[in-house]
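Figure 6 in text form: structure in, sequence out.
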């Protein structure tokens, strides 16, 4: 995890059609510092993974087409294990 590399993305709301679904809890980048995705703290108190390619990243929010693009905590763990710690 490397929130230190992209602090401006931490805590942003993740929305679809103006409805907040989650907030970014961590930013995952690869060994070269490229954005991989986000760990989300969802409103249902679960943690999920949002791949960067499925996100429209704005200055004040991250928009997604649907909550169906969120991956489960199992997939989140897979990405956590494969991204360097800050």
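Output sequence:
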């Amino acid at each position: 995890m490397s929130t230190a590399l992209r602090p401006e993305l931490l805590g942003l709301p993740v929305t679809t059609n103006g409805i907040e679904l989650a907030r970014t809890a961590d930013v995952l980048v690869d060994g070269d510092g490229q954005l991989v995705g986000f760990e989300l703290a969802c409103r249902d108190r679960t943690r999920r993974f949002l791949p960067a390619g499925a996100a429209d990243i704005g200055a004040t929010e991250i928009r997604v087409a649907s909550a169906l693009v969120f991956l489960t905590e199992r997939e989140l763990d897979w990405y956590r294990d494969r991204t360097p710690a800050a």
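Caption detail: The chain has a mean pLDDT of 90.
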